[in-house]
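Ligand-bound model needed. farnesyl diphosphate.
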Amino acid sequence: MQELFATLTPGTEEWRLAGLLDPARLPAHIAVIMDGNGRWAKLRGLPRAAGHKAGVEPVREVVETCARLGLECLTLYAFSMENWKRPRAEVDTLWRLLRYYLKAELPRLARNNIRLNVIGRPDSLPAQAFRELEETIARTAGNTGLRLNLAINYGGRQELTDAVNSILSEARRKGQLAGLVVDEEAITNHLYTAGMPDPDLLIRTSGEMRVSNFLLWQIAYAELYVTETLWPDFRKLDLLRALVEYQKRDRRFGGLTMGRTHSEVTEQWAETVPAGEPA
Ligand code: FPP
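Prediction:
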């Protein structure tokens, strides 16, 4: 939080919003559906590629802000499995932008102690983009700060399918296929996001009220925040607005936890249930 304040100007709206945040209740994981690049370009009479190009700056700003806030994970939906249906030239532009981002951002990722990761089926990417992605992941593997997941060639249903197949092949390898019972923990541990907290907050830009096959399992209890702002216009100020709104929400996780966090309630519950009695 201190690190973020060092980049803000006193008296600005960003400063005021940051001052409203409770550092102890920041989300551990934010996921973002970056939408509206095409509409942003159309509004300006520009080709769609110009919208994607303008979408790089908010990626930079959101990543750096999340790192400065000390968040654990940020997941950005950069390319869905359905995006292959777009014209070839647009898809090629997206790979070019990804390569540009990886090259230009490596020093910033290092400076901010950010570890890059990819979720999805990235091996279908053009060879050069795949190689550069792998290289950047390897180069940032020792960083211990924000974990930046780029969802590339990603689909939530495909992720669940991959998780189930991975459970089956593991059981087959160990000779434990007969009588195999799959539970929630097994699925969670075989997702692309294994070992990461579930997103607490899902942000979608450009006003669409859909989850678009994104992190279907992991967003079960995420707070949804949809803004009309188109992705190329999304800045630190918009992220702070989303965080202030998130902290106003009463996260109940299906229970009656009015105004308290999940861990507070779990702790209190553990205290009120006498040892040895069924919960
Ligand atoms: C959705 O907008 C956006 C995408 C499919 C691509 C997201 C890519 C970027 C933000 C570029 C840079 C990303 C990285 C990680 C370097 P849309 O084209 O569907 O917009 P529309 O709904 O207005 O047509």
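Residues 156-196 form one domain.
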